[in-house]
Amino acid sequence: MIGKLKGTLLHAVRDYDPCRGHDSRFRSWAKRVDSVDFSKQNGFCFEGEFVPDGTVEYTPGVYLVATVTGSLMYQTTHYSVVRVKADGVEVLAPYTTDRERGWALRIRDGVAALLAERVGQEENSLAAIADQDLIRELERRGYIVKKGDELTR
């Protein structure tokens, strides 16, 4: 899918909870989370690429979305976790604000659990290839294939 992913994520968060909505006076951002580094206790524990403004190709996965609300003097950043799937966008449970220190720690374990859950759901690209074709390719590469779970070189 191709579109304005950052805008889609910001609108999904606003539609889910208007209190977390994007205020255009402030800088909001979205980041695709590929992994969690448990050795870090701040926002740098979420490893991945920031979503650029403009039109991009949607990549399914888990995203961290930060929206800022409030006045020019008193602002609150809301951190929401959003999952992008082939059939749409879904705002998920881990959510926090920066009203207290440690916002990243409050959602880190929940985000890590979502990423671990996603690993089990990834499609095996070899599943669609016939067994005989796989065996021929392995033999071409020098492997000896025996029926069962045994695979030797």
Report on this structure:
This protein has two domains: 2-122, no CATH class; 126-153, no CATH class. The protein has 153 residues and is α+β, with helices and mostly antiparallel strands. A hairpin with a 5-residue loop joins strand 9 and strand 10 (151-152). It has helices spanning 5-16, 103-119, 131-140, and strands at residues 2-3, 29-33, 35-36, 46-47, 56-57, 61-70, 75-85, 88-97, 144-145, 151-152. It contains three helices and ten strands. Helix content is 25%, strand content 31%. The model has no long low-confidence stretch (mean pLDDT 84).
Break the fold down into its secondary structure elements and pairings.
Layout: E1 2-3, H1 5-16, E2 29-33, E3 35-36, E4 46-47, E5 56-57, E6 61-70, E7 75-85, E8 88-97, H2 103-119, H3 131-140, E9 144-145, E10 151-152
Antiparallel strand pairs: 1-5, 2-6, 3-4, 6-7, 7-8, 9-10
